[in-house]
């Protein structure tokens, strides 16, 4: 499945460069022009896996957007790349935190893809490490184990239901094939005789006792059916 990336950028030139570069490398992009539109996209597109955002934008800017994203548990783990012309130290200070990944303007395609790949690799590590996951969503070991068990139970129930549906479809298809086979067999036993061809009958003794218990019937001249019929 193609990764969906949310681009938050009010500058049309920067937005176009981001879209074309990411599309060229096989990513599916969705663009918002300010923070409010970005939040709306996040609500309606839960499949978004990465956010690239500018900082200076009208209405809700990138700084407020980042803070509001981090306040929501369902969005907390989505990696964010900050795309800005600010110096990284100034942007970090404004974001009131450390560890941010930056894409500096003007945008360089090679650097952009490198940063995206790094963010994806980090996200994969988070998903594979239970300790990181527990820390991000605030669960202790017992609660996390319960969540995993519930998830496994749900997956198993869905697998069983799918297997039952597959068996039902297979059974119905088998019945259809048998019915079709019987119809074809019945059709193959039907003799054909053209009304323009003469009808001939030849009786042939079928037993050594001399009794004529069967007749060999030849209908027509060429290409017609031959059958053995009881007398």
Describe the protein's topology.
Elements (H helix, E strand, L loop, with lengths): L3 E5 L3 H13 L3 E5 L2 H10 L3 E6 L8 H9 L9 E5 L3 H8 L5 E4 L4 H20 L1 H8 L3 H48 L25 E5 L7 E5 L1
Parallel strand pairs: 1-2, 1-3, 3-4, 4-5
Antiparallel strand pairs: 6-7
Helix pairs in contact: 2-3
Describe the structure.
- This protein is α/β, with parallel strands linked by helices.
- The chain has seven helices and seven strands.
- The protein has helices at 12-24, 35-44, 62-70, 88-95, 109-128, 130-137, 141-188; strands at 4-8, 28-32, 48-53, 80-84, 101-104, 214-218, 226-230.
- Strand 4, helix 4 and strand 5 form a beta-alpha-beta unit.
- It starts with a strand and ends with a strand.
Keywords, separated by commas or semicolons:
five-stranded parallel beta sheet; 2 domains; alpha/beta; elongated; 7 strands; Rossmann fold; 231 residues
Structure summarized in a few sentences:
By secondary structure, the protein is of the alpha/beta class.
Radius of gyration: 37 Å
> What is the strand arrangement across the widest sheet?
2-1-3-4-5
The CATH architecture of the largest domain can be given as: 3-Layer(aba) Sandwich
CATH class of the largest domain: Alpha Beta
Measured between the Cα atoms of the first and last residue, the distance is 71 Å
Order of helices and strands: EHEHEHEHEHHHEE
**Percent range for β-strand residues:** 15-25%
**CATH homologous superfamily identity of the largest domain:** Response regulator
Give the overall silhouette: elongated
Q: Based on helices, strands and strand pairing, what is the structural class?
A: alpha/beta
CATH fold-type name of the largest domain: Rossmann fold
Helix content: 40-55%
Overall tally of domains: 2
How many individual β-strands? 7
Mean pLDDT: 75
Please count the helical segments.
7
């Amino acid at each position: 499945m193609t990764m969906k990336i949310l681009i938050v950028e009010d500058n049309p030139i920067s937005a176009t460069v981001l879209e074309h570069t990411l599309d060229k490398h096989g990513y599916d992009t969705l663009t918002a022009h300010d923070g409010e539109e970005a939040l709306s996209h996040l609500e309606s597109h839960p499949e978004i896996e990465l956010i690239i955002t500018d900082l200076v934008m009208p209405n809700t800017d990138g700084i407020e957007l980042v803070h509001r994203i981090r306040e929501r548990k369902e969005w907390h783990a989505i990696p964010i790349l900050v795309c800005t012309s600010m110096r990284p130290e100034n942007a970090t200070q404004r974001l009131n935190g450390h560890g941010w990944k930056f894409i500096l303007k003007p945008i360089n395609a090679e650097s952009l893809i490198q940063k995206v790949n790094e963010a994806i690799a980090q996200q994969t590590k988070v998903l594979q490490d239970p300790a990181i996951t527990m820390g991000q969503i605030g669960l202790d070991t017992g609660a996390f184990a319960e969540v995993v068990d519930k998830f496994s139970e749900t997956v198993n129930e869905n697998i069983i239901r799918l297997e039952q549906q597959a068996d039902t479809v297979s059974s119905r298809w088998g019945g259809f094939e048998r019915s079709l086979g019987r119809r074809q067999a019945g059709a193959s036993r039907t003799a054909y005789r053209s009304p323009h061809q003469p009808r001939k009958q030849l009786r042939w003794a079928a037993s050594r006792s001399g009794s004529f218990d069967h007749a060999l019937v030849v209908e027509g001249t060429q290409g017609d059916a031959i059958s053995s019929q009881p007398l």
